[in-house]
Amino acid sequence: MKLDRGKMIKIVDIRGCGFVPSNIVILQATWSKYREKLENILVKHRKIFPSFKKGTINFDDFGIQMKDTTTVDAWGCVWKFNFSGLDGQVIKHPLEDWNNLNNLKVPDPEKGIAGAYGKPTSWEVIESSVKLAKEKKELSVVSFPHGFFFMRLHYLRGFTNLMKDFVLEPTGLEKLIEIVTNYNLALVERIAKLNVDIVTFGDDLGLQDRMPISEKTFRKFIFPSYKKIFQKVRSSGARVYLHSDGHKTNKSLNHFHQFLHK
After folding, report:
1. How many CB atoms lie within 10 A of CB 88?
2. Are 83 and 29 in contact (CB under 8 A)?
3. How is domain 94-260 classified at the architecture level of CATH?
4. Which of the listed residues 25, 103, 247, 248 has the most CB atoms within 10 Å of its CB?
5. Cα–Cα distance between 18 and 71 in angstroms, integer?
6. Domains of the chain, residue spans
7. What pTM does this model have?
8. How confident is the model at residue 256 (pLDDT cuts 50, 70, 90)?
9. Cα three-residue angle 211-215-216, rounded to 5 degrees
């Protein structure tokens, strides 16, 4: 069932329509493995997949996510894909040595929103998508990449290095946080002019049974930047959608509540 903007806004604002809409995303690796069997499942469940048509999926179109492919993202991180159709991992971190901080390659926010990897999405494409959504009376949404802040820090430094940084607090850490925060704020400044309904963000903050960092560390190094970025979105009239993945504690969720719902 496709809902118009008015009904979706009610649901997003917890003013409800009696149910919560859902969306099922199927990874390309899953299509490649199950192929026609998966097509038959989608055809059988029309209420969930009303617009799906058999033969429209290229089972082996992995794009950049081809096994053993490497690519360099807009920040200079080198990615490698170990499995076709699944996300890769950073194998070379530009700031593994703090001496490289002054030469960090920061994406130009005027050229669009840089993805986790691959080319940035230009503002022309983003503006066209927003305009089309409004013409169709659908929710207008602009998405930040998965890994916009916390994950970007460990993409740049390396996960182990970043965990040590949170303990040792080298002078470069404060500057790096400021750089990544200001980049995101510059993107929000541009998005604010589009008058969109929702801005989505993604940052994996949880493991299977805990956060990878303590609540104290989260409050000190991550929360202040989240607050600046999300409050700037909210002040523009848009809503914040945060994909955070994994296990979070009630205390950390209460921090989000302070600025996500005001």
Report:
1. 20
2. yes
3. Alpha-Beta Barrel (3.20)
4. 248
5. 45
6. 1-61, 94-260
7. 0.90
8. low
9. 140
